[in-house]
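USER:
Before I trust my own judgement here, I would like a peer's view. Write it directly below this note and I will take it from there.

ASSISTANT:
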Amino acid sequence: MSAPGATNSLTDVAGLRVGHHTRDEPGWLTGTTVVIAPPGGAVAGVDVRGGGPGTRETDLLDPRNLVDRVNAILLGGGSAPGLAAADGVVDGLFADGLGWPVGEPGRVVPIVPGAILFDLGRGGGWPNHPRAQDGRAAYDAATAGPVAQGNVGAGTGARAGGLRGGIGSASVVLDSGVTVAALVAVNAVGSAVDPATGELYAVRWGLGDEFAGVGRPSPEEVLAARARWDARPDAAGTGPGMATTIGVIATDATLTKAQCQKLAGIGHDGYARALKPVHTIFDGDTLFALATGERPAPGVLELPWLMEAGADCVARAVGHGLLAAESVDRSLDGGVALRSWRDAFASATSPARR
């Protein structure tokens, strides 16, 4: 049977590295996350479903276009200005001599598609957003080890349905030996929580004992959460473009650009399994897909299952992002107060309910 990889995170796909740079000092709740491809790059695709996206170099990933490999993917906070962080990733790739070759040896153009989410003002300082130096710091911090999750990198200022969001990741090794994994920065208008029970939608998609110890909250906590939701002073602080869940699906299988685009598209099913509503006019929901090509291409009947595994990894990653998040209160600085799912529904993870 299929099971999670060694770290149950994106770096279970050999050759990938992930780096975070977190800005959570006074006035700040934002950050940058970078997924770095192997030295030779990775085949990539993208699917943008939300009504308020902020993206970079997504047209390049159209299967009809020339460049077939990317060097890194940027996921960042800061709304549209946060795309500036990609410049720092490009600088890091230039320093390492990595990019699309253009003529003479050593002449390369680093290819860094990216997407941002909205977190402006959540730490108190409205203009505070990631810049080139933050992208470079995330690039320099990248490792092939287990992915740090929760309120780091692009998930630092994230929120989801009134609770604190964050970075989550998950992986699976299929019976064929192919690894599929996802990393998601959860920052949705929609909720990751079943309003009737307080349970995380994502838990039902867990593999084995992945979500062991995560149960159903007490009825009292569910009622209290509903009361807090009804007492919101505004519509969860959202408006056009003021949310967005972004992420990356990766595999070590050999895929074409068109297949990567389809993998990203089916991956959005994972968003729909773990977040309700999803793909709203207020979100810029975007998923990238990477294929490193370390393993053979899947057969025609294997490919749908690989893509379905990607969608499940996305859903599971959303759950891990919510579980790893921590409560924060920046309201005295003009920012926001966000309760974590674990604090809002503490009984669901208490020893007595496991």
Summary: Residues 303-324 form the longest helix (22 residues). The mean pLDDT is 95.
